[in-house]
Amino acid sequence: MHITPANIQWKGDSPFSEQHQDIYFNPDQGLQESLYVFLNSNGLDKQLRHEHHPFDLSIGETGFGTGLNFLTTAQAWIDSQQRGQLTFISVEKTPLQRQALLKALNRFSDTLSLIDELGTQYPLKYSGFHQLSFLSGKIRLLLMLGDAAEQYSKLNANIDAWYLDGFAPSKNPDMWSPELFEQIGRLSKPGTTFSTFTAAGKVRRGLKAVGFDVRKQKGFGRKREMLVGEFIGEDKPKPSPKPWFNLPQKPKPDSVVVIGGGLAGCSTAYTLAKRGIQVTLIEKEAELATGGSGNPQGALYAKLPVKPTNQGALHITGLLHTLNILKLENPDQTFWQQSGVVQLATSEKEAQRQQSMIEGDFYPESLVCQKQKEELADIIGTQPQHSGLYFPEAGWVSPREFCQHLSQHENIKVINTELDSLEFINNHWTLHACNGDKITTSHVVVCAAEQTKNFEQTEHLPLKTIRGQVSIIDAPATVVTPKTVVCGEGYISPARDGKLCFGATFDLKGKERNITDQDHQENLSNLADIAPELAVTISQQQDKLTGRTAFRCSTPDYMPIVGPAPLYKNYLETFAQLRKDRKWDFGDAEPAHYPNLYVSTGHGSKGLITCPISAELIASMICNEPLPLPKDLIDMINPCRFIIKNLIKQAI
Ligand code: SAM
């Protein structure tokens, strides 16, 4: 959904909110105020000074504003040389424009070292969760764009300290609502602290009502009073309306085995390795990314639904997350290119779909905008026959090189061996290789595409394959080739190393592993609609076409399967009543999962946008960190969903 930027005035070089008639921070002593009111009043200065063991810290803030509180806290974390993980979660309804944010922060540039990095990663204005990563992932910022109460209601986290900022309750009464306090209580545990610049009675009562002990103390500068306190409420999980989605909670492991060396496996291994975990990545082939992740070029973009849906939200969040990783890991763009993607309206139906989508105004223009044929000619470099959508942030990636790059982290060891089975004995997983070798580990993540079904524990997952073939040819010298990725029924990427790659077919039944002429013809016919002149030239040298066939691993709802592996038989028993009564009151029914066994599979042809964010989700689950996706999206991809749907349908 669309997010409206902040409407600000400048008072000198300090921003002032037009809407709320309030300041973002103390114009004379912004940094000192942030340290006094938030860091110190939560006792974090002492903790950072005296705690010598590595520890993880999760801070929740209301009102990101300029990011000053985030940057001051991150700097204190850096200066005290912490070795743990800082996760700073904040929410913002009307974000500052990037330029305004940088202008407001400019005066702190000698003291706060992450300002430029924040400016580079600052997200575009799309409502939902955006994860930014600093210092090789040691500091993470989960920035939720949207209303505070609504966004926090979607968060799954244990917060250690709250920074309750947001404009003064008298000037912004809507934010300091009972709904927000309820979420703050839900996300707190005994010992969670809070501090806020205000001493308003509404805030004091609201926090008390959800379980906080609230005290007044001297405010900053000329402010008489402010509030601080600690959560003394119960540490009881709140009842869930859908208990089958409840997640297991365990301490962070030292080592993990990831099975499968495609995009899902390599991104999971990388994300865990960045957390300091030793990862063994097991791939049965001699090289990484030989399956669905092995094409020379893949389009990095999300085809958006006309109206926002959870599927669309996952794809956009995933696209933006992958882009952040690529920019960080490969700033020179050697194995990817932010070339932009054009989605042509190749039929009347598609033209109407695109028109409705743009009229709905659900997506920010910086993500997608509509362009006429003439405008597209400049963008693509050749004249298309149709108008279409332009995604300026999107582009293409070489998935195989991406996988290779991700797996080069020093904490990852790759083993090329085929596994036969998994066994949980003596509180550990034993992985039996086909050659008789055994590997033991506490945690396993299965990222083995459709071969995930080969393991007894995950054989119930409804995975299917979809055959696809891309066509490859030397870029003809006589015709101009596109500068961007261009999609219609098929897609073509810009030439790379003199080669053009276009495709791909989509065959639900095909099992043929060889390249077929029939598929080349289909790719050429689709190309004729998106780049006619090029298609004619290539048709004249069809004998020079080569290609690649792969099998995408997909699921019945075309959403990936990501999360803890359910104990199938236990689910059937625990939730059997759903067969008779879908409105059944679950009582204290708790689902059971295999200990420390997770899956990430079924990414279909969208692995470039769904694998890295899924990896982040699984790593956060394994390490008990705040989860990087809203709850409804996590539930949407939970591996247990098919068991529950089938019970309700009485299909099992
Ligand atoms: N913590 C900020 C910093 O370090 O710069 C300053 C926060 S400023 C005082 C208050 C912020 O709360 C503004 O950016 C405002 O847009 C945001 N805000 C106000 N109402 C909100 C709401 N209902 N949901 C989310 N954010 C809100």
Describe the structure.
The chain is an alpha/beta fold and 652 residues long. The protein folds into three domains: 8-231, Vaccinia Virus protein VP39 (Rossmann fold, 3-Layer(aba) Sandwich), CATH 3.40.50; 257-289 and 402-463 and 556-648, FAD/NAD(P)-binding domain (3-Layer(bba) Sandwich); 341-392 and 470-548, 2-Layer Sandwich (D-Amino Acid Oxidase, Chain A, domain 2). The chain contains 19 helices and 31 strands. The strands form six sheets. It has an eight-stranded mixed β-sheet with strand order 6-7-5-4-8-9-11-10, sandwiched between helices. The chain has an eight-stranded mixed β-sheet with strand order 17-18-16-26-27-28-25-29, sandwiched between helices. Strands 20-13-12-24-31-30 form a six-stranded mixed β-sheet. The protein starts with 7 loop residues before the first strand and ends with a helix. The site of S-adenosylmethionine has 22 residues, from α3 and β5.
Q: Low-confidence parts lasting 5 or more residues at pLDDT below 50?
A: none
CATH architecture of the largest domain: 3-Layer(aba) Sandwich
Bound molecules: S-adenosylmethionine
Write down the domain tally.
3
β-sheet strand percentage? 25-35%
CATH class bucket of the largest domain: Alpha Beta
CATH H level of the largest domain: which superfamily?
Vaccinia Virus protein VP39
Largest sheet: 8 strands, mixed
